[in-house]
């Protein structure tokens, strides 16, 4: 295995881990939710680690830059659907899942449009965006597991973390839209 290809393999591993955590979650086995949470947590760790490694090894590529957010959106989207279905009687969980999904899809489309207009850096990931991602990945891991470990009820911690992630999601959504607005207006004016 080539060390340079490790970041791309880690990105693909997140896609592969989607059916793994789904099968674990719904499997009629002991500790199914623990294994689902663990699989999701491994995927979450690779989300940070693949980008770090790509920069460190100088192996970042256009394909990797495209696939990384796609893999993120796929696994987060799958986890949000599972969590929303599991906690369907909690309106704040449903609203948080909807807000996060809408923002993820909307900002992905905006970034793609901005890239086509040579202005992708305008909506580059911010520090607050990274905090949002970390909090949503932690919340989803804890809610998927939903159990107690080391004297901590991770499921109970997952709820406020998900709400916190949803608030950060709204804030970053507004920030990215405000940053992109001049480019959007310039584009619509030039077509008039």
List the helices and strands and how they pair.
Elements (H helix, E strand, L loop, with lengths): L5 H21 L5 H26 L4 H25 L4 H26 L10 H19 L2 E2 L2 E2 H38 L1
Antiparallel strand pairs: 1-2
Helix pairs in contact: 1-2, 1-3, 2-3, 2-5, 3-4, 3-5, 4-6, 5-6
Q: Give the strand tally.
A: 2
Q: What number is the mean pLDDT?
A: 84
Helix content: over 70%
Head-to-tail CA distance between termini: 53 Å
Strand order of the largest sheet: 1-2
Question: How is the main sheet built?
Answer: 2 strands, antiparallel
Q: Shape, please?
A: globular
Protein model, in words:
By secondary structure, the chain is mostly helical. The chain has helices at residues 6-26, 32-57, 62-86, 91-116, 127-145, 154-191, and strands at 148-149, 152-153. The chain has a two-stranded antiparallel ribbon. A hairpin with a 2-residue loop joins strand 1 and strand 2 (152-153). Helix 4 packs parallel to helix 6. The mean pLDDT is 84.
Keywords:
single chain, 192 residues, mainly alpha, two-stranded antiparallel sheet, 6 helices, 2 strands, 81% helix, 2% strand
